[in-house]
Amino acid sequence: MIKVDNLSKSYGDVEAVKSISFELCDGEIVGFLGANGAGKSTTLKVMTGYLSPTSGTVYVNDMDILLDAHEIQKQIGYLPELNPLYGEMRVYDILEFIAKIRNISGKTFKNALARVVEQCGLKGVLHKNIAECSKGYKQRIGLACAMIHDPKILILDEPVTGLDPNQIVEIRNLIKDLGSEKLVLMSSHILQEIQATVNRIIIIHKGEIVADGTNEELMSGFMGNAKLTLEIKNAEDASVKDLSEKIPNLTIIDTKSKNGSRLLNLEYPKDQDPREAIFKYAVESRWVITEMSPHSANLESIFRKLTTEETANA
Question: In terms of Cα–Cα distance, which of 162, 186, 184 is closest to 83?
Answer without folding.
Answer: 162
